[in-house]
Amino acid sequence: MPFRRAGLLLTAPSRPLFAVAVILAVLAMLVQYGGVDIPVVSEHVFNTLAIAFAVLTAGVLLRGA
User: Fold this and answer.
1) Per-residue confidence (pLDDT) for residue 10, from 0 to 100
2) pTM (predicted TM-score)
3) Where are the alpha helices (DSSP H) in 1-62?
4) Which listed residue, 14, 41, 58, 62, has the most CB atoms within 10 A of its CB?
């Protein structure tokens, strides 16, 4: 059931979108705090975390995403 507040319709993100966001966030944290070297993520840790947040936000704001 969507939650409506001040004209903004919020829905729960789909499981695949949520999984993608969590995986990206975990990879970014592993690189930053765990000392793990992941080729693409290591060079762009903040961007990876920002993309994870953007994916999660899109999943909440866009119905059916």
Assistant:
1) 81
2) 0.81
3) 15-34, 39-43, 45-61
4) 41
The stretch 19-44 carries a mean pLDDT of: 94
Q: Give the distance from CA 46 to its chain's centroid.
A: 12
Are the C-beta atoms of 13 and 19 separated by less than 8 Å? no
Q: Give the count of beta carbons closer than 10 Å to the beta carbon of residue 21.
A: 21
Residues 6 or more apart whose CB falls under 8 angstroms from that of 38 comprise 27, 30, 31
SS3 (DSSP) at 14:
coil
Among residues 12, 32, 23, 9, which one has the least CA distance to residue 51? 23
DSSP-based three-state secondary structure for 31: helix
Eight-state DSSP code of residue 12 = P
Beta carbons within 8 Å of 59's beta carbon, 6+ residues apart: 12, 13, 14, 17, 18, 21, 65
